[in-house]
Every structure is written in structure tokens, then in C-alpha cells.
Amino acid sequence: ATLFAAQADAADAPRRKSGLWEMKTQMAGMPGQGPMQMCVDQASDNVMQERAKEKVNCPVMDVSRSAGKVTIHAVCKHDGMTSTSDSVITGDFDSAYRNDMVVRYDPPQHGMKEMKMVQEARWLGPCKPGQKPGDVIMPGMGHFNMQEMMKRQQQAR
């Protein structure tokens, strides 16, 4: 359900500068996880945003943009559950951004009515030699390519 809400927000987020990004995510009441890194270019960001739109049933999606700030209010439905998310994304998307998100679940998911999450990302520079757009490095989980994973999921349907 957390990913579901994040996908809705990702569908309307601005495009990031091409290169290697480091992202730290903290959810209220949960231990912090080490930062993940992702190699992106405009094409891979576009693919991920389009895929996010395909998978999300959000009858309400209000996006407000101003200088250095995007505010998103979404109401999404999935498997008998409704999630209402409110995000404020600030930054320039060339060097850094921050996403402050609150998601409310109806009915509660795993005993959770509300989830608060902060994601901070910063641009590290060009992707490392041998990396290609969509490559993700997660602490304790190793390396995978997001685009290849999404293609396999689509082929499995």
C-alpha cells in the first residue's frame, strides 16, 4: 500500500536530472534504512512515471506546481482499499529534492490508519562506469534494473 501511494505521487513528480541519485527514505515509527542509489536519465524517468500511471486507479489527482514546489493530493483505490495521500515535494530536481508524504488508509492496512514518510534525494553526479539507466543499488538487497524488472512484470501478464 505504501508503494501504491508512492506510485501515485511519482506519476506527477517533475523529472530528475540525468545521473546518479541517492535517496534516503524514513517512515515514522520504522527504523531508517540505508540510502539507495539509482541511475536515471530522462527516458527512464519517463518510463517509470508512465508505468506508475498505468497501475494506479486514482479518481482524484490534484497537482499544484509553483517555483521549487509540487503539491499532490491523490485518492486511490486498490483491492477494496482506499488510500488518500498528500505530498509536498520541494527542491530543484537538478541537485536535490524532498518529498514529505502522509497517506491515510481506509480500511487500515496491517493495523495502520496513517503512514508518514520523508524521502530526501540528492544528485551525486554522472552514473558510474558500467551503470545504465534504471540500475538501482539497495543496501542489503544488491543491484537490479528497474526498467528490466517492469518489462518482465508486463510480459508475465
SSE arrangement:
Layout: H1 2-10, E1 19-27, E2 36-40, H2 42-55, E3 57-66, E4 69-78, E5 81-91, E6 96-109, E7 112-125, E8 135-138, E9 142-145, H3 146-156
Antiparallel strand pairs: 1-2, 1-7, 2-8, 3-4, 4-5, 5-6, 6-7, 8-9
Helix pairs in contact: 1-2
The biggest sheet amounts to: 9 strands, antiparallel
Shape: globular
* Alpha carbon gap, first and last residue: 21 Å
Question: Spatial order of the strands in the main sheet?
Answer: 3-4-5-6-7-1-2-8-9
Strand content: over 45%
Query: What is the typical, i.e. mean, pLDDT?
Result: 82
Q: Which structural class best describes the helix and strand composition?
A: alpha+beta
- What's the total helix number? 3
In sequence order, what are the helices and strands, one letter per element?
HEEHEEEEEEEH
The low-confidence runs, each spanning 5 or more residues with pLDDT under 50, are 1-5
Number of strands: 9
Helix fraction by DSSP (H/I, runs of at least 4):
10-25%
Rg? 16 Å
Describe what you observe in this structure.
The structure is a single chain. It is built from 3 helices and 9 strands, in the order αββαβββββββα. With 157 residues, it is α+β, with helices and mostly antiparallel strands. The protein has a 9-stranded antiparallel β-sheet with strand order 3-4-5-6-7-1-2-8-9. The longest helix has 14 residues, at 42-55.
